[in-house]
Description:
Elements: E1 5-21, E2 32-39, H1 44-61, H2 65-74, E3 81-83, E4 103-109, E5 114-116, H3 128-135, E6 143-155, E7 158-172
Parallel strand pairs: 5-7
Antiparallel strand pairs: 1-2, 1-6, 2-4, 3-4, 6-7
Helix pairs in contact: 1-2
Amino acid sequence: MSEIIYLTRVRLSFPTLIEPKGAINDPNAKVKYSADLLMEPSHKDFVKFMSEVHRTAGDKWGGDAENVLNMINIDRKLRCYGKGEERIDKKTFKPYVGYEGNVYISASRELAPQMIGGDGNTIDGTNAIAYRAAARTLYGGCSVNAAVRPWLQENKHGRGVRCDLVAIQFCEDGEAFGEGNADVSGMFTPVATSAAPQFGAPAAPQFGAPAAPQWGMPTPPFAT
C-alpha cells in the first residue's frame, strides 16, 4: 500500500466536500467527495507525491513500471495528476483560472474525508452540522493543507493512477476562482412601508340583566 502524502499550502479548486456527487455524464457512477489541489511543479510535496507513485508502480509492475506509467501519462483520464494547462474550460477554451503554470492532483473518496479544524483536531464526522459548517469554509481559491494517498488501478477498466482524499484543513484565504457573486445592491431602492393596520380590541357585548317576569296574582276562579 502506498504512503499518505501531506500537502502543505496548496490551492483548492472544484471542491465537492459538503455532499458527494457522481460524474455528470455517467448516471451509474459512484458519488464521491472530491477536490483539485494546485501547486507549483517544484512544490516539495508534489515531488514527494510523484516519487511515491513511481515507487508503488515499481512494486506492482516491476520492470514494466516505466512503460506502464508512460502509457498512463499519455492519457489524462488515466491519471490523477497533470499540468494545469491540460484542464481546459470548455467555455473559454483556455486553462481554468489558477491552473496555468501549476500542476494539479485530483483526489476523491466515497467516504467523507476527515475535516481538520484550525486547532489540528478532527471535526466529528457524525456531527453533520459541524462537519458541513467546516466544509463551507473551503472554497475554490483558498489555501489548504491536505492528506492524500495515491493508488494504482488495475482492473477491467484498465490501468491508472488514482488518489484518495484522506483529510483536508483550511489554511488561509485567497482570491476566489470564478466570477463570484455580482454586487447588484445599487439596483435596489428602499421599500416604502405602509402604516400598520390598527386592530383595536372588539367592543365587549353589553349583557343587561334580563327583565324579571311579571307574575300577577291569578284571577280567582270563583270570583263573584
